[in-house]
Design a protein that fits this description.
By secondary structure, this protein is of the alpha/beta class. The chain has helices at 40-51, 72-78, 80-85, 103-112, 132-142, 161-169, 174-177, 196-202, 214-224, 252-266, 281-289, 292-295, 306-311, 351-358, and strands at 10-11, 14-15, 28-36, 59-66, 88-95, 116-121, 127-128, 146-155, 193-195, 228-240, 274-277, 298-303, 313-315, 326-331, 339-341, 367-369.
């Protein structure tokens, strides 16, 4: 692929991409979409990996700099010739306002200036393995209305051990059934690959800025639109964990509310009654956060804790109803499906999983995991 020539133009505090399209303005096969904010310490490794992709189609790198105060822009510019020598065209733009406008905004800008038929999302602090674009592209062509993910290697090794194991081991069916858990999207954002047409049908990303889980909002919206989920069962990304990551700005309560709302919309609205598995703190919190109509559908809590079961029922003291609602607390073997499971996965030494298996229930029909 003959690398196109580049021009730089500016307008206000935002730049148009520092490049122009080929003669016909034709699309490339894949745009690597990369928002950047103060990422200079990771960029060399990240960009080196992009330059080493074994994908034989046409590629471009679309970067949007969200008011970095370090030399991120200079580092990316320094890679332009090397990337273009590999046939990867480079688009760089950004703004220099006093404050960053957030990950959602930067992703949207990087996508709007791109011309790829498919989008490969890349965080500036992560590293793609050399076959990532090729393997995810092959799956995405077959599933153009899906978000395609992959397995990951977490760095530093051992950080977020349960989360990493979950990312890599949930089954294809569980990519759909476990979308309500506290882990967030079952296809994790740093691994996303999709057709641009699908992104345009679902998106754009929420631009609320810091504290907004733009990935989870988009993920749920994609599912609402009938989008599919798939994962390449190979490790294609080194997924870095560090305290400056944007995900740490999102509060647990923000995520909790979105999950509860989506659970009510997609599952509880279809059920006439159900049991909450966990009569403890998390189960009771879920109950209190449900709509009045869905609270009425809770026929029981269930648990394995003898002390909780001995109490006989949970009284919703905060309710304005008279008398206060009372919900029975049963042993899980005395309770009936369907269940919303409010016990964390992979935290009970296998006891929860064994108990569920003993009941011979089907995930996604008889129960959903919420925690």
């Amino acid at each position: 692929m003959e690398p196109p020539k580049r021009l730089r133009t500016t307008a206000g505090d935002a730049e148009t991409p520092s490049g122009e399209r080929g003669e016909a303005g034709s699309a490339v096969d894949v745009s690597v979409v990369m928002p950047v904010y103060n990422a200079s310490c990771w960029l060399d490794e990240c960009l080196q990996a992009i330059s080493e992709q074994d994908f034989t189609g046409s590629m471009e790198l679309s970067v949007y700099d969200d008011a970095s105060t370090d030399d991120s822009r200079i580092v990316v510019e320094g890679w332009r010739e090397r990337l273009e020598a590999r046939g990867i065209s480079v688009l760089i733009s950004g703004h220099s306002s006093a404050q960053p406008r957030g990950v959602g905004y930067a992703k949207n800008k990087a996508i709007s200036q791109s011309c790829g038929k498919y989008l490969c999302f890349q965080d500036a602090d992560d590293v793609m393995l050399h076959q990532r674009v090729r393997l995810q592209y092959e799956v995405s062509v077959l599933h153009p209305n899906s978000l395609i993910g992959c397995r990951v290697q977490r760095l530093p090794e051992g950080s977020t051990e349960r989360y990493t194991r979950w990312i890599n081991t949930i089954s294809q069916d569980q990519l759909v059934t476990q979308v309500f858990t506290s882990h967030g999207p079952t296809v994790v954002m740093p691994t996303w690959f999709c057709s641009k047409n699908w992104f345009l049908k679902v998106g754009p990303f929420d631009e609320g800025g810091k504290g907004v889980p733009e990935d989870l909002l988009f993920f749920y919206q994609s599912l609402r639109r009938g989008g599919g989920l798939s994962r390449v069962d190979q490790c294609l990304l080194v997924y870095r964990y560090h305290e400056k990551a944007a995900t740490h700005s999102v509060t647990e309560e923000t995520i909790w509310k979105l999950r509860v709302d989506y659970l009510q919309e997609r599952v509880l609205s279809q059920w006439e009654s159900f049991t909450i598995w966990n009569a403890g703190k998390q189960g009771r919190k879920l109950y209190r956060c449900l709509s009045w109509a869905n609270q009425k559908k809770v026929k029981a809590f269930c648990d394995v804790d003898y002390n909780k079961i001995q109490k006989g029922f949970y009284t919703y003291e905060e309710s304005k109803e008279i008398p206060k609602p009372k919900v029975p607390i049963l042993h899980y073997r005395a309770a009936s499906a369907p269940f919303i499971i409010c016990v964390k996965l992979d935290m009970t030494g296998g006891v929860l999983e064994q108990n569920l298996n003993s009941l011979q229930l089907k995930e996604g029909t008889d129960y959903y995991h919420f925690n």
